[in-house]
User: Fold these one by one.
Assistant:
Number 1:
Amino acid sequence: MLEKIIDFSLRRRSFVVAAVLALVAAGVWSAFHVTVDAVPDITSPQVQINTAVGGLAPDEIETLVTVPIEMEMAGLPGMVELRSLSKFGLSQVTMNFRDGSDLYLLRQLVNERLAHTRGALPADVSPTLAPIATGLGEIVYYTVRYRADAAQKPADRAEQLRELRLTHDVLVKPLLRATPGLAEVNAIGGYEKQIVVEPDPAKLAAAGVAFSELVDVVRKSTDNAGGGVLELGGEAVVVRADTRVKTAAELARLPVKFAAAAEPILLGDLATVGIGSAVRTGASTEDGEESVTGAAIMLAGENSRLVAQAAVARLRAIEAKLPPGMGIRVVYDRSDLVNATIATVRANLFEGAVLVAAILFAVLGNWRAAAIVALAIPLSFLFLLTGLVQGKWSANLMSLGAIDFGLIVDGAVVMVENILRHLAERQRTLGRALTAEERLREVRASAREVARPMFFGVLIITVVYAPVLALTGIEGKMFRPMAIAVMLALGGALALALTLMPVLCSWLLRGRLEEHDGRIVRAAKALYTPLLEWALRRRAVVVAAAVALFAFAGWRFAGLGAEFLPQLDEGSLAIQMIRGNSVGLADSIELQKRTERLLLAKFPEVAGIFARLGTAEIAMDPMGPNTSDTYVRLRPRAEWREIDGRRITKAELVELMRRELAATIPGQAHLFTQPVQLRFNEMMAGARADLALKIYGDDFAELERLAVECRDVLRTIPGGADVEFDALGRLPMLEISPKRDALRRLNLHADEINTVVATALAGEEAGALVEGSRRFDVVVRLPEAARLDLAALRELPVRTAENDGVQVPLGRIADIAVADRVGLIAREDTQRRVAILVNVRGRDTDGFVREASAKLHDAVKFPTGYYFEFGGQFENLQAARARLAVVVPVALALIFALTYASFGSARQAALIFVSVPLAAAGGVLALELRGLPFTISAAVGFIALAGIAVLNGIMLISYINQLRGEGRALRAAVVEGTLTRLRPKLMTALVASLGFVPMALALPVLYDLVEARRKPRAGGGQ
């Protein structure tokens, strides 16, 4: 079959070239249509239920809202994880489902079950589903701001922020939301404009008016009514009562109470009516100042690059429609990273081809042959792009960055090197240049000679990636795109090696050929020949040394340590600032602004900063007001400072920042990570760190005690760079408790207290004013000064009877005191849990967890029913190890089966298979020399290494068999075959080892990941 393909290609050379030109056209078209993303989306299908809850403590929200929803959702088909949190004002239940589940069907099922829970929930709560997005759905962040030259901006910063937020909500958000591919637009920061009615408690008491009466007056005057249709004079006339108040001034003149006086008591007599703001649960900052920040959230399954570009373009168009002096600044754009990747890959095609050609020329000594082989790189890449588009797979940094240019040309190297050698030998035999017919005949014979071993060798490398497709979970989502991309590229390279390479050799390798061993090959042969002779005389010693090397590598492998995935350098930083639980939003904002100004002033490496504090409008990522996510954009490395004549490293920069922040702005903890890594950690463990120690139990006080003891233990273990609680602790809470005896004496119910507290403190929405297309809520609540004054709260009037009853102060019928209550309750798989966040630095995660587990068991006594486990990267590492225990044997079995199919001899297949453990030993030593732990990425590299090692073995044994068939003695055949195949072996080893260099150097975002895959292959000797 292979011989027929070669014969057909050489008979129909024009057809082969035409097919290649068609491939080029299809590949170029595919390059403009392939779906490109920054990183693989590791999220599982997820449905999130958010429920706004007012007036309940977190433990009450857990009991009355969260648990009923959890119980109803339990047992949904395909659900693999159920998490929840209950905090003041919010219940959130998050469900992750098995990969491949229909997200829209899941949301329908969740909605159906939610309908069943409504009877069990408090009457005033309404659960809603979060937008249809993934954990990586926030693809564009932007701020709405006044320009520096704005002439019409308000003088007061608070008023500026109110106008900016209003402009965002009524103009930017609706227009941006219409962008195809967006699920939602989220906003945080600024002040939401409201019309606020602030009663004076003393005037209410004097007038005998209750809070509820004010609310009723406003509500009755902020709506219109329809009167149907009348026939007047043969015309249909629509009737409506236009009774809605239009302005705050009209609102203030509404009558509240008619007394004996001629004039009624007006709303403005009892309360101040004016413009105010909603109570804030979150804020945002930019470069040390408060800001209004929006986030464009991508619909699940969309192309992030195209949607991000469309969103940014829409923002540019919207900016022209903003009021004078306002502008929009994009502070994060996912497509920037993707576009940079496309440009880098495009440049690396050329750089990789030049590098491979230089290596081939240095070894082959013939530039035309080197050029033919190098041509396989762009053509294989175009084949890859075509396959991705046709298979509807996405390309991302993981898959594109993992393409090994040297690996792609292995088949072409073997084919062209053999053809070149035979043509040169034939010329030397005849003493003249070959004719076209002689050249074609020699090319055919040379290609057929290596076709079978080359085919099976490259096929083995390709097929060995097939078990990677069987990986599931996060590691499957990370590495399946890479395996698909590599298999497509290798498949294209194999087809080209069997068809185009012989055709081009028959045309281009004409005239007098200059084929000779380069200096590298001559030096290698000079060193290798005596070594080979010695090895053949001391076979027992060589075998013993190989066994010893393998044993030594196995021993060193046990000490490598292990991590789930190496850290990717994203080129920017994310810092989670955690302040004390009692820190309010205003103080947290001030600390955040001081932090940003310090970083901008002290660190020239910082290009810009923006942050989100607390909870946004849509609570996809709820945080307390004491917590912020800070995104730090860094300048290019060439602009960083130098220490001792070298550029500072990112780890050193982080340490300098940590020290400066701790010394200058105490009172807050800092967790340093990276933007995408932060989101990955949240999705993997529900926590924002590499590692999370989760403690499970029922009693929250006991969980707090255990968490404090465990944190103290973890801080003593080397490698625990950041050890902090995950939203653990108690918050001061103002509790108003009824005096039951007083209520009975005054014929009152607790609901009267609830009404006064809800209206006066939380504020009650009593209607809306409409200005054109804008709608502003009208809210009745106490002035801010009165809300903060406990004495004033005790004097709030409460009516004792429904009709004209006397009023008593709230302090007479209720106790008002500040108490510490649980601030947030997290649950996982229907159990309460607390978490301690750990960022591991300077050692492997597996080693840290093993040491930590031993010390925790010894130092902390867990009562019955309480236990701990480590989540995050360690949890995924354990799951991946279990899968690799199946995948690796399957890969090795495939290699052996294909090797046996190539030779039809179990003995020779076993002989070739011996190279796999020896190559793995070299890979282990390479990891140790580089200081890299064993990771899932390295495991994939070892799988690929096994295929490459077998390729070289197949080429060597097949040539020795050929020499034996020509009558050579075994020893002579081994020596001649080994020395003859040394040159192609060196070429495949060099180009495969160095083929990653352009991509690794050009993509620092992937450097560690690429190194983890490349080192086993480079050290394996190939």
Number 2:
Amino acid sequence: MGEALRGDLTRRADRVIENKAMRWISMFRLRLRSLLSRRKVEQELDEELRYHLERQINENSATGMTPENARYAALQSIKDIEQRKEECREMRGVQVVETLFHDVRYGARTLRKSPGFTFIALFTLALGIGATTAIFSVVYGVLLRPLPYKDPSRLMVLHETTPKVGTVSVSYPNFLDWRADNRAFSEMAAVCAVDFSLSGIAQPENISGQAVSPNFLSMLGVHPLLGRDFDSAEGKAGAAAVVLLSYPLWQSHFGGDRNVVGRSIALNGRGVTIIGVLPPDFHWFEKTDVLEPIGVWATNNAESSERGERGDTVVLGRLAAGVSFAQARSEMEGIAARLAREYPAQNAQFGVLLQPLREVFVSDVRSAILVLLGAVVFVLLIACANVANLFLMRGAERTKEIALRLAIGASRVRIIRQMLTESFLLASLGGLLGLALAIGGIAGITRLIPAGGLEGAIVDLNGPVLFFAAGMTLFSAFIFGLAPAIHSARANVQSELKEGGRTTSASTGQNRWRGRLVIAEISFALVLLVGAGLMMKSLYRLLLVDPGFRPNRVLIMEMSLRTSQYRKDAAILNFWNQVLYRVRALPGVTSAALGTVVPLTNNHSRTDITLEDMALPKPGSFPHPDVHIVSPGYVNTLGVPLLRGRAFTDADNENAPRAGMINALMAQRYFSGENPIGKRFHFGHRPANDPREWITITGVVGDTRLYGLANPSRLEVYIPFRQSITGDMNLIVKSRNDPAALTAAIRHVVHSLDKDLPISGIATMEQLISNSVSTRRVTLILLGMFSALALVLAAIGIYGVISYSVAQRTHEIGIRMALGAQRRDVLRMVLTQGAKIAGAGMIIGIVLSFGLARLIANLLFSVSAADPLTFAAVAIVLALVAMLACYIPARRALRVDPTVALRHE
């Protein structure tokens, strides 16, 4: 009995649900049909009401009424036909959408009737939305786009640190101890930067890669597009030479051939087997063309097994489940302290630094990008303020129209909705035009950024960027549309409809709001101008920094002798001597030299040294200079000043006593008050038992800026290349004319000696200087463009307000002049009004600038964020522009004819 009852209730419930669903579907179809086939539905409604009317007339006629009385009685029974129609429409539930359609059509007609207003507002909004979208595409591509790895927030990059040097690479034996002893990381992998010479192709070239632990890709959650990953055996020394190709290298050098797996390529003159291709979205924070197993790297770098050897290795770790960043850092600091106690000669004072992987990717550019985003938001706000002012002025002209609509029954909410609909329609059109401008802006920004500046980042118009643009469009519509809509709905019906009022005067509230909006524009523009001024002064001072060399007409190119034919020092030395001899003989060459390191490139080779008669410090506190291996003529070719002693000559060869030069900073720090010429040092920590290890200082040269113009000089040591032979060198050539014109001739010389030797890093020293300030330069260019745009918009804003005020006060000005006011009095009155607005905006802007300028402090060089000269110069420029914008309508006021002005009312 109970089961039957429950079954019956269930069936009844199902029928109820089914009936409700059917009714909902029927209603949805009716509403959809009412919207999509509105004309047909209205025709059917007319026919239905006509049918009911005719039937009622026939019924009335059947009772004996005359045709006229029958029709009149029928109409009385149905009452108002239009009201019946409205009731039927309400039953469909589509009034809101239909009303919106009416508002949109009406708004479109209104905008079409005012082409000048529409064009100015559209263009202003498009500039603001387009610029904001373009910058946000960079923000998203660099800072916000999820890294293409599994749970990237748990990935950490680990470095070693010392108090004297800061962040340094990780010793490979230390990495092995970290991996074995820690519990905070579920996995760890070593990643070492390596370079290769790719030969056996039409144009040999240098490519970059990473030697990685076999678990590197699996830790990232990356699977090869083709082929296989490294296996555990390939993490040990003696592993077979295999590589994974990056997707771009596979496309550019192998044409996307899917049969590339198993083929062999020549890297550093040896055959290497391709075992796979990386996916297209894989990228690392350094340029990566190939990956090789760490075991192959260990085989070719026997010194990597020494604990004190720190090459270009970092460690990637994945935090274990439930372990926080602070817990991991605490544990790793404890392990580093233990290793320092166990191996004091190599690890004393060495600590560990943990950074989230995302932080490593974006640390160099985050500040500049966020500053630009803030600047472009200010531009958008200024644009919105300008459009709001346009709407306020237009609303004042439409006061009678709005008053009439209120008088015949429209509600104030309905008026506000209509005005906001016009705002959203205008903003939508401006947003579409802004997207077109954003496409060009993105292309321009990516061209401004030097190659490699956005390594791995994808900057384009994608879903999140389009969503942001839509949000900015809605935000803009609300910002510039709300205040004008509210003011328009507050129109006084009686006063506006009085007879005799032939002109429209703005309310005091509208005038006050227009003034406030212009004050906001001026204050925002001043903030942007201060930022641009500080960046300009910073870049100017940076370019005045002495780089320590003379860059004029100097060309550099990098070469690395990595193949088997250069295993012996004699072969390496012979090649370099031949290159120097033949290049120096080229027409137009004034001098040529070789050097392992070139200033401003950030490339370096550092080591500890021991000075003669120096008390031996603790490990980690020895002098740790950058070491340059150079040929004779290096100092002269690069234009590094020789301060004391002599430069290297051909006599400083492998059979001569070891010689060295130091820079002025090292001479000052360790030989203050005495002549360093003739003093000795050697590499390493222990006392030198072999006299041949000592290096005698023969000269002191000027300091160079190895790490960029904004970074201070470091300790530097120079060694003759014949006494420390290496296969990695930069050829430095000084010419009489344009050095770039020598590139082809130098290539021919090099390839005549070795056709498979790649040449890379070709640039003039002037290009290196330009590249060293690229981040600041790009930031300045964009910030300057936004500031100029803000200045123009602010000038237009104050011009519009003063011009409209003059137009509204034409009658008053006519009376003043009729009563004897002089032209200078009228001019002073108009300029004073503008000066009050500009002055208020500048005061607020200066206060804001003092607070916001500190946000760009880390982008400045030798300039205070509160630099008074910059603030004063910006204030003067803005004041002049504001006064010029006020002077134009003021001149128009002077041309007012009192007779015409009085007759106008």
Number 3:
Amino acid sequence: MIFLEIINNLALLALIAIFSGYFDVQCPGERRVACLHGLLFGFACVVGMTCPVRVAPGLFYDGRSVMLSICGLFFGPLAVAVAAAMALVCRIAQGGIGMIQGIPVIVSAALLGLAFRHREKANRHAPSAKRLLSLGITVHVLMVLFMLPLPAYVIKDNFWKIALPVLTVYPLVTILVGKVLSDHLSRTRLFCQVQENEERFRTSIYSIGDGLIITDINGNLSHMNPMAEKLTGWSEAEAKGRPCSEIFNIINESTRKRVESPVKRVLQEGVVVGLANHTLLIARDGTERPVADSGAPIRHSCGNITGVVLVFRDQTEAREYAQRLEYNESKLRQLVKNAPIGIFTTTYDGYFSEINDTMAHILGYGDARQVLADNPNIAKHFYVVPELRKELLEKLTEEGQVKTFESELKTLDQRRIWLSWNARAIYQGEDKPFLIEGFAVDVTERKQREMEAQRSANRMGVLLRIISKPVNNVQELLDYALDEILQMTKSKIGYIYHYDEHRRQFTLNSWSKDVMRECSVVQPKTVYNLDKTGIWGEVVRQRKPILVNDFAAFNPLKKGTPAGHVQMNKFLAVPIFQDEQIVGTVGVANKDGDYDAEDVIQIQILIGSVWKEVARKKAEDAHTLLSGQLMQSQKMEAVGRLAGGIAHDFNNILQAMLGYSELLKDNFASDKEATEILGEVISEGRRAADLTNQLLAFARKQAINPRVVNINEAITNLLKMLQRLIGEDIDLRWKPGENICLVKIDLSQIDQIMANLAVNARDAISGVGTLTVETDSAYLDETYCAKNIGAVCGNYVLLTVSDNGCGMEPALAEHIFEPFFTTKERGKGTGLGLATVYGIVKQNGGHISVATEPHKGTIFRIYLPAYFDDDTTGIQQPRMVETPPVGTETVMVVDDEASMLRSVQLTLQSLGYNVLAALGSEKAAALSQSYADEIHLLLTDVVMPKHSGRDLQKIILSQRPGIKCIFMSGYTADIIANHGVLEEGLNFIQKPFSRTDLAVKIREVLAQKQTQAGNLR
């Protein structure tokens, strides 16, 4: 019985719960539906508790546990709260012993329903029978457990009577009610969803902006949206069921023939089809509209075609827009084509994809088609500086566009132009490089004006710097100007040459520093004849600038460069004009870019202005130099006259002193002490004679016996002697020049020059050093001679003696050729060494210069006149004699000083000669007349009262035609011969002379053939 009562109670509750499915439809709103469900399930609980299954007084069972758990599971917290509240109120109102057990049953059932609801939401599935069973068992196991607190007698009599049906029937009812409610709710919601989908579908179709027609399998119209009604002129109600071809009447715009219905084709072929262009739709009222459409089959889930959907659109506005677009594009194309600026599109790599004619003209092409056919790369073929193209790409990459980006280009016809670019990047995709589109404006004229203004300002600044540069001479001025020219033209190397149009000869003024560092030419020339120059000489021959931007290319004007010459790849030379004459040339080379006309103009304008300053500076320097040289020359001449004035008397005194001393030395040969004393006297006398000879050499009044000499051979013979003079610590370097001309000079004077310069270098070098001796050919031009008083234009043999000693200040160098001027300590120098060199050079018609700086050494340059006469006598080598030769011939000695006469007489007698002594020319003539035997040799003084030595020679020759003659003198050479040089063929010995010198000279003259006797010519 209790089972039936429980089932009846639960069935009533389940029937009431089923009505809850209608609230979702009838009472929309989430909170409202939840409250209604709570009231319904609360009412079901109350009904169940009013007709429960009574077990004992105050203890009954009903279906509230099932209702509350189901309510919590399906409808959530609000619904179950309302239902549980109603159940609690009702149960408390009923009271009895089961009230305490009934309240936790109500609460636990509601909470367990919510707990299972939360879990089902996580699974997102409708509760299964297994879940419902689990919920029923859990709820009612708790219900049975809640019976345990009841009184023992109640439990004893009723526990199993209640527990068994509760644990079996109630879970099954939970499954039943849950499934019924779940299925009912699912059907209700599915129905609503179908209604919503249908409405959404209808709304979507009828909201489409294009015309839409749907047909059935037979091609009859089933649906038509408002746009289709408007375009066809048919309403949906009128058209429904009619053939689509009747409603959708289309013809070909051109032929006016009817076009097959696309619906028919879709049903036949089962594929999507579209109308051809130029299709017209004829509306019901006859209106014609251009349309575009497409038809597609509608397929069942099994794949069978159930109908066709046709979508079409009025093309009237589209056609008008397309026509306007085509018109505008045509106008735009014409505008781009005829635009006065260049318009282009290029790839990232620099190839043109689009270009207008103006851009083609800018680049030197005839039109755009020619450019696209040639397909040039703008970076490789046009950019003068390709790096600027990279800079443009970097800016486009970073910023997406560039504005007024300027660069220099070289056109197809090799013109240089400047363009201003405005461009932007057009991206094609992440993996593709962007395109570049934009326009370019030719700003060459504006850029040239700017650059010319800038160049003018730069030139003015450079010129002001050059003119205001504190310099000591023209050389420094031009050196500085060359540096500025190199910077202005961005060149690596350069030069400035002076040019003499009369001699057709270049003379180097300045080489750039880089040339000096890189050049390894052995003994590079500084003077070039125009006829021997290559392409760089064309600047003079053609009298215009010479520009070569590919120096490595073959050119018939080039004559090659010497080994070690600086490598050149570009070259520019410009002539320097002054009063229509070329006075110099400027050359620059190895610019990074090409040289052009602007570089020529820059150099011409700048060097023209600089050369005016050079002319002014030269005039100032020449005046200063000439004034100083004139004063120095006058001073040197005065000292020379003083030296020459005392030479005769002093030499006669020395000659007598030396002669008597040598005689005494022979007479007292057995007295050792006397011999030593007399030896010292003779040594000091010879030192005094050397000083006198040095003074005479300085005064250019030294009697000399010049011969034609190969100076290379003469110096080669002196090398051992020079090495002994300078010592082993100093390296002697001999660099003889090739094809050196001969010179005419007394060999003994070369000995004097080299000995004095070697000693001077030795004293200037502290410790280890180098003395270098070089020879070369040289030409002194008018410019050089104008700056150096006493120098004469012509060809010379250049003897250069240089050392790396201490050098000296310029102020001291001005006095080094003066007699008795010395920088050495007292007792270590007489100050006559360089004065002697100076006098010898001047006496032989040469020129000497010195270049010296403190701690940089000294260079002496000696210019000796080149000898070109074919009638040469060869090199005369001096003989070294250890024992004076003797003789037995008769020698007549003539002198106007008794002491001198006596000294020579005794010397000759000691040599074995028969001596006839005559005091003066008159006595000599008389003695010759009266002497009966042969007189072999006349030894006579040159300057004597009444008759000179030369007059006496004529007299005695008339008496004794075969007699030979030797002249001797202590006077300066200008008195005994023109310019200090005895006539060729006369035999001469300079006072004071040694016994050996006299003995050798006599034997030499006596050995001469009769035809070479010392006769006057």
